[in-house]
């Protein structure tokens, strides 16, 4: 699936895009599939299997941060993408998604997301391939995209 898909009733669904080359990101996507969106209210796909140009995204956008394409086609990035996934998931997760977008909390969530993205290669499930900029490129891990 490479697009915002439609349900059997023709309703558009969202799409959470993650870095399929990153073990930490893949583990997080599996968690979302199992616990946040068990009923497949939206699709979860690695960017490597998505027609990114259709959504105005680049490979670099998706290496740096998760992306959520809303049913209307608009895109949320980084912590706001995660918030959208929560808001579109199972009812128990939705309040947390809204909480993440509140002023003040969103600022903190953005900083936490950036730290996690910058260090995902060192987190459970992560590998050196998870580094946003490979250590061999610059000697240090790169910085994740700042939320839009």
UniProtKB/TrEMBL annotation:
InterPro entries: DCC1-like. It comes from the Bacteria. Pfam families: DCC1-like. GO terms for molecular function: protein-disulfide reductase activity. This is Putative DCC family thiol-disulfide oxidoreductase YuxK.
